[in-house]
């Protein structure tokens, strides 16, 4: 048990204000509070990226472009957490539909931020409940998909966002093309909002993509598209290259994996292939269903969803006979219902979602509304024939009791576990399947094998009895700690992962297991079904092959010897995408080239649909591979490296300094919080160490709310307690009480001997006395507020004391004596010191903001010059045309030709003169726009300041 430090209410008030200070945008201390609130071990490159996003208060946003696997979600979480602490809480996250749940979980579990996924269902519910602005949810971060944000662009535009975070933002890089409807719609809806764009691939195939991404954030970084093309088309000119690099530097931040290996150790991926040969009955079923799916007219599949549903059925067909049998039954039942009534009770998408768990995330980017149609007699006969076929396919599927791939799994696990033992890794395997029915089949298969023990299922519902038992035991074990969130879905996920970590041997997971869970304790990934979407595969493997993994990760895949297309897909994913081996897995170049993984799935699905013979399959995949090679342009890769990447040594040195500084700030922040808490809780709690305490009784009245008793600890500890942080209700109540005390002028005797350790800066003051004053000085400028704690003091000898001396004095335990009056001469001396400090701070802020202003003015100057260049280019082009027309007129042979030539010359000269006049007008207009923008910034430079006296004491250092 730690002995209680004899602090005073004066110490407490100082600590409370120190903990809640608002720092300027370029301060390294700005994120200390956000880091201390997070349940995550941060790396220096993540802190560096988050601080970059705050660097200039005039910035309209930033592109965080760290390589894949470096935690851009964490970087954005830090920015969001800091905004939240500043009470700027209208925050929107736009992400691909399959990443929405992951964002929800990361923000809730790692940053303790309330958030909600907004989609069609919840939007309609909000509207029905009378909320006409469903995007505006008080004190809640809103998460939605690209497609949903596009469809509700008017709502998005109407909301006054403090920050919009856009994940996988390379989807916006072609915004300069009018054909990119989603990007242009979102750009219009988010025009004046501060934006944070996250992408590992800001530049893939063309420099115009950089123009697009940057213009999405700030229209005034570059001029128009034509002037950008003209200036930067040839980066071989060193001047053009340097200009572009400098103009990108304030808006785009990139760190590479190789630059952070000192902090983030990476292990390797080791591929393991298990081949199998389907039985004759399995092969026959495959051929029959494949041919069925190729029919021109299918009654079972809505025309608007034909491509999507064909993809789903092909994936189920490749998964297992049990998976396709269920889907075939669904189709047959649906058609029989259609004969009875034209309008189905459920959409096919809703019905097949029970078979193929990733359907809802894929469908949002594919689906259209399904319309009911009346049936003709011809349609009825066609439906009846199709039902007969489907029922026959189902009969074949259900007659197959075992799948050869299931038998291959048992062989693969034997080899893979042996490899795990060789690597001295835990014998744990995560098996991924895309079908719940296949999941059930694998459970039955493993139950009759040597791997029968300690199996756990993981899917979107987990309603099986074993999962319920694990959940109930987990909940009882963690009762009274913050591990229990109250959300059954979140707690079920935690319970199953904890069981797998502590007791389990095999987890069989659907696609739900590829989102947002950390399985770094497992180093064996089995792709029982292989998605065609490379990004989804990377997401799966990334559950295990991630920061914190101590062993090489074995990745098992299955190869069908009878299926030429399956083999080519695997080779493409393995060789071109490099998903299954190496240190880093799929490269940015490749994942970025395919834009959306859904688009790539469509390309693969088309080959399966159209190609029957091996030579057709070979030709189609050769063409696809060629297209990928063209998209993955080596020259553009080099350009990106030169433009966006800094030298490794330079980055490593910066990160080393950042690491030391952020650890020091975090350590100090947490020490201050625990010192304040220990004083304020007094006899209500016991403190066994510096990072935890046990609350025995609540020190606050009922208005504070329900504060649970029990063990509390700082984040990043065991997690078996209430996680204590600045935004915890208990800490918030403590801060309110400490800051709100009205403290009289009094004597405080500081006891140097009771302080642990020597404080050299105070040694010469032992036995002396003097006066100390604390004030809160708040300055607002450039739309940001910063707080300065002004500690001023003098010794009785009359000599002023330094800020550092006074801060160290307030670390010494003390005792409060009698109330006093301040002598007039002492008050004048303290006031003079305070006045000097104020002037110094305001001058420093003014100088700092002047550099921000200069950078912004330079940006606007360049923007104006870009536009003027574009206007001048048009006149140069007309001059060139006039020369050509004169030359043509001179060399003309007939009088008619010469007259026509002269007429063209005069018309062009007239057009040039008109353009010259309009050029001056247009240049004046550009200058006027620039002046208006500068005036807006100048208005923000005006400082607003306030001073609040917190307390004054007469000190004695004994």
UniProtKB/TrEMBL annotation:
Gene Ontology MF annotations: ATP binding; helicase activity; hydrolase activity
Record-annotated Helicase ATP-binding domain positions: 53-220
Domain Helicase C-terminal intervals: 409-591
UniProt keyword annotation of Phosphoprotein present: no
CDD domains to which the protein is assigned, alphabetical: DEXDc_RapA, SF2_C_SNF
Keyword vocabulary terms for this entry: ATP-binding, Helicase, Hydrolase, Nucleotide-binding
InterPro entries for this protein: DEXDc_RapA, Helicase_ATP-bd, Helicase_C-like, P-loop_NTPase, SNF2-like_sf, SNF2/RAD54-like_C, SNF2_N
Record SUPFAM superfamilies: P-loop containing nucleoside triphosphate hydrolases
Pfam families according to UniProt: Helicase_C, SNF2-rel_dom
Top-level taxon in the UniProt lineage: Bacteria
PANTHER family assigned: SNF2/RAD54 HELICASE FAMILY
Protein name as catalogued: Helicase, SNF2 family, putative
């Amino acid at each position: 048990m730690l002995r209680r430090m004899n602090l005073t209410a004066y110490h407490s008030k100082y600590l409370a204000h120190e903990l809640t200070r608002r720092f300027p945008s370029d301060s390294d201390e700005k994120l200390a509070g956000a880091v201390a609130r997070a349940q995550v071990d941060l790396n220096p490159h993540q802190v560096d990226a988050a601080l970059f996003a705050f660097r200039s208060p005039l910035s309209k946003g930033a592109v965080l472009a760290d390589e894949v696997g470096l935690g851009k979600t964490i970087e954005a979480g830090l920015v969001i957490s800091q905004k939240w602490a500043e009470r700027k809480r209208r925050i929107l996250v736009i992400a691909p539909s399959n990443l929405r749940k992951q964002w929800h979980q990361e923000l809730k579990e790692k940053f303790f931020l309330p958030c909600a996924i907004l989609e069609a269902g919840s939007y309609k519910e909000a509207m029905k409940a009378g909320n006409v602005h469903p995007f505006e949810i008080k004190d809640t971060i809103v998460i939605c998909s690209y497609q949903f944000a596009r469809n509700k662009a008017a709502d998005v535009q109407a909301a006054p966002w403090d920050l919009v975070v856009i994940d996988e933002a390379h989807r916006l890089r072609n915004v300069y093309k009018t054909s990119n409807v989603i990007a242009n719609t979102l750009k219009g809806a988010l025009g004046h909002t501060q934006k944070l764009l996250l992408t590992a691939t800001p530049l893939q195939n063309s420099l115009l993509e950089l123009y697009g991404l940057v213009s999405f954030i700030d229209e005034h970084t570059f001029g128009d598209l034509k002037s950008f093309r003209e200036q930067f088309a040839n980066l071989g000119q060193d001047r053009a290259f340097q200009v572009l690099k400098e103009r990108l530097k304030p808006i785009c931040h990139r760190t590479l994996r190789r630059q952070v290996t000192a902090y983030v150790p990476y292990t390797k991926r080791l591929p393991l292939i298990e081949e199998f040969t389907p039985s004759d009955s399995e092969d026959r079923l495959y051929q029959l269903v494949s041919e069925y799916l190729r029919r021109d007219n299918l009654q079972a599949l809505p025309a608007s969803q034909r491509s999507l549903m064909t993809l789903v059925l092909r994936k189920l067909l490749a998964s297992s006979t049990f998976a396709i049998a269920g889907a075939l039954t669904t189709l047959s039942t649906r058609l029989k219902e259609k004969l009875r009534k034209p309008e189905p009770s459920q959409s096919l998408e809703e019905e097949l979602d029970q078979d193929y768990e990733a359907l809802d995330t894929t469908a949002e980017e594919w689906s259209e509304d399904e319309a009911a149609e009346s049936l003709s007699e011809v349609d009825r006969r066609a439906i009846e024939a199709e039902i007969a076929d489907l029922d026959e396919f189902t009969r074949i599927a259900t007659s197959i009791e075992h799948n050869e791939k299931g038998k291959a799994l048992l062989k693969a696990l034997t080899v893979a576990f042996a490899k795990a033992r060789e690597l001295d890794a835990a014998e744990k395997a995560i098996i991924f399947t895309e079908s719940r029915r296949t999941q059930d089949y694998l459970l039955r298969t493993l139950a009759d094998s040597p791997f029968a023990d300690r199996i756990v299922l993981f899917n979107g519902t987990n309603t099986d009895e074993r999962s319920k038992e694990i959940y109930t035991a987990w909940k009882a074990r963690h009762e009274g700690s913050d591990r229990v969130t109250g959300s059954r879905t979140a707690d079920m996920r935690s319970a199953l992962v904890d069981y797998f970590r502590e007791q389990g041997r095999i987890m069989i997971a659907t696609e739900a297991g590829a989102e947002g869970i950390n399985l770094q304790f497992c180093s064996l990934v089995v792709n029982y079904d292989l998605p065609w979407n490379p990004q989804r595969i990377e997401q799966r493997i990334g559950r295990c092959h991630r920061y914190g993994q101590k062993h090489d990760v074995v990745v098992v895949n299955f190869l069908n010897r009878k299926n030429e297309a399956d083999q080519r897909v695997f080779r493409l994913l393995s060789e071109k995408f490099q998903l299954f081996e190496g240190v880093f897995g799929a490269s940015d170049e490749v994942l970025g080239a395919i834009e959306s993984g859904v688009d790539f799935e469509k390309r693969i699905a088309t080959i399966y649909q159209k190609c029957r013979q091996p030579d057709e399959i070979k030709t189609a995949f050769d063409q696809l591979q060629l297209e990928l090679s063209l998209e993955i342009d080596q020259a553009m890769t080099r350009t990106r490296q030169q433009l966006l990447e800094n030298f490794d040594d330079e980055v490593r040195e910066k990160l080393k300094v950042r690491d030391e500084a952020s650890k020091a700030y975090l350590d100090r922040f947490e020490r201050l919080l625990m010192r304040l808490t220990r004083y304020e809780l007094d006899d209500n709690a016991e403190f066994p160490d510096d990072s935890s305490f046990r609350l025995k009784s609540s020190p606050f009245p009922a208005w504070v709310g329900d504060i649970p008793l029990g063990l509390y600890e700082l984040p990043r500890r065991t997690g078996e307690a209430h996680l204590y942080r600045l935004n915890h209700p208990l800490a918030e109540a403590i801060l309110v009480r400490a800051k709100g005390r009205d403290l009289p002028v009094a004597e405080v005797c500081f006891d140097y001997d009771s302080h642990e350790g020597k404080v050299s800066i105070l040694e010469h003051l032992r036995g002396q006395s003097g006066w100390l004053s604390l004030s809160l000085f708040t300055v607002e400028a450039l739309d940001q507020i910063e707080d300065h704690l002004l500690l001023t003091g003098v010794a009785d000898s009359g000599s002023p004391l330094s800020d550092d001396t006074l801060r160290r004095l307030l670390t010494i335990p003390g005792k409060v004596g009698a109330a006093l009056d301040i002598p007039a001469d002492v008050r004048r001396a303290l006031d003079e010191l305070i006045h000097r400090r104020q002037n110094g701070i305001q001058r420093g802020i003014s100088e700092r903001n002047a550099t921000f202003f200069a950078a912004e003015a330079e940006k606007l100057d360049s923007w104006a010059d870009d536009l003027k260049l574009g206007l001048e280019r048009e006149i140069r082009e007309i001059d060139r045309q006039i020369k050509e027309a004169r030359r043509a007129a001179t060399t003309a042979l007939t009088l008619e030709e010469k007259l026509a030539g002269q007429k063209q010359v005069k018309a062009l000269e007239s057009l040039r003169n008109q353009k010259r006049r309009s050029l001056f007008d247009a240049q004046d207009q550009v200058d006027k726009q620039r002046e208006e923008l500068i005036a807006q910034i100048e208005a923000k430079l005006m400082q607003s300041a306030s001073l609040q006296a917190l307390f004054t004491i007469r000190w004695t250092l004994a």
